[in-house]
Write the structure tokens for this entry.
Amino acid sequence: MAAALYNNSSVTCSDKAMTPTIDDLVLEALRARDRFWFVQDLNIVERTNATVTLHLTIGSDLFVQVFLSQSSQRLSFALS
């Protein structure tokens, strides 16, 4: 799943050129929602000029949280 959202094996990117923009990440999440049968929905939980938090719903009580901070170049994934 993580590879589908962003083709990078590192959770925190050290090279700014490797960090996706917020718009890029949202577009990739939309593509993942349409591509993978198990992704039921996409919810943009919070979006600012510097950060975004997304929930990709897998089941009624299961989702993948994706967090991106452009300023710190942090890309995190969590299964909740």
